[in-house]
């Protein structure tokens, strides 16, 4: 049995229904879908995603990332994305291993292993794909296997997680991973700007305020923010506003006008236009569609 098949069998054993399944192991989630999905909008946090069966595409701004079992995805900052499972069936469901990335664990491992932690002046995109290796799959399988050993997991799971991170830190995407843990990297400066926007998404902002938070000039912030997120700070804020409004309408049965006002829109008509532009339908029609496919809503 190949390492890919072994990990697929483990994920299928513990993710027995469609959706995203949190596990007893910190930061580890398993995902299963038995049919292709509609595009799903979400804020994706830093994570490693390994698809072992089926295929998926993720859109970040105007960039599209298509991948399956031959590649893994690394997300290095919080980014608004559109994800879609493109290949899945009841007989061969989409199966995915997801491990959220902890900057503290990464930083400690970089120091302990004596790896170069120098920061780049030109951060890359917040999403990247790289060929998966048997060693990475084997380490991921060992982590999932510990779900059957709750007595052993608290001791052994951190070791398996460290091996996974070590494989990433010594692979071709190592510079990007190291930037996650480097406090003064350009990536982390952009991340500080992202954090400010997330905390103040419902308020107007001046770019100078965000640049001050990032400790960059306004022009440098625009340049690096666009390189990492494929959008401007203002576009990023708009996506956060609209995703939060959608959550309020879907999860709290809030009417569209109130939801729009709560996330910072003064004009209901502007809110409806921008909502339709992002999600492909006005709020009422969009929410009806979401409620018809609740498994997909929890996919990312």
From TrEMBL:
Domain HTH araC/xylS-type: 191-289
Segments crossing the lipid bilayer: none
InterPro entries, per the entry: Homeodomain-like_sf (IPR009057), HTH_AraC (IPR018060), Tscrpt_reg_HTH_AraC_N (IPR009594)
Record keywords, A-Z: Transcription, Transcription regulation
GO MF entries: DNA-binding transcription factor activity; sequence-specific DNA binding
Listed PANTHER family: ARAC-FAMILY TRANSCRIPTIONAL REGULATOR, TRANSCRIPTIONAL REGULATORY PROTEIN
Protein name: AraC family transcriptional regulator
Organism: Bosea caraganae
């Amino acid at each position: 049995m190949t390492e890919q098949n072994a990990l697929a069998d483990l994920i299928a054993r513990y993710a027995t229904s469609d959706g995203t399944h949190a596990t007893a192991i910190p930061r580890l989630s398993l995902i299963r879908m038995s049919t292709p999905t509609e595009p799903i909008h979400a804020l994706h946090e830093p994570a490693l995603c390994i698809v072992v069966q089926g295929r998926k595409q993720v859109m970040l701004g105007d960039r599209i990332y298509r991948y399956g079992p031959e590649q893994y995805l690394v997300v290095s900052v919080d980014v608004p994305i559109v994800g879609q499972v493109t290949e899945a069936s009841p007989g061969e469901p989409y199966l995915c291993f997801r491990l959220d990335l902890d900057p503290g664990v990464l930083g400690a491992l970089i120091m302990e292993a004596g790896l170069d932690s120098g920061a780049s002046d030109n951060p890359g995109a917040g999403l990247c794909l790289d060929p998966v290796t048997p060693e990475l799959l084997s380490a991921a399988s060992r982590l999932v296997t510990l779900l059957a050993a709750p007595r052993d997991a608290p001791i052994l799971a951190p070791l398996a997680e460290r091996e996974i991170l070590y494989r990433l830190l010594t692979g071709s995407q190592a510079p990007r991973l190291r930037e996650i843990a480097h406090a003064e990297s350009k990536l982390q400066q952009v991340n500080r700007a992202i954090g400010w926007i997330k905390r103040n998404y419902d308020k107007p902002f001046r770019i100078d305020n965000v640049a001050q938070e990032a400790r960059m000039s306004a022009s440098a912030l625009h340049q690096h923010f666009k390189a990492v997120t494929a959008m401007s700070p203002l576009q990023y804020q708009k996506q956060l506003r609209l995703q939060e409004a959608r959550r309020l309408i879907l999860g709290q049965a809030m009417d569209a006008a109130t939801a729009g006002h709560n996330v910072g829109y003064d004009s209901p008509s502007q809110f409806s236009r921008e909502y339709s532009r992002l999600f492909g339908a006005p709020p009422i029609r969009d929410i009806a569609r979401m409620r018809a496919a609740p498994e997909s809503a929890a996919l990312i």
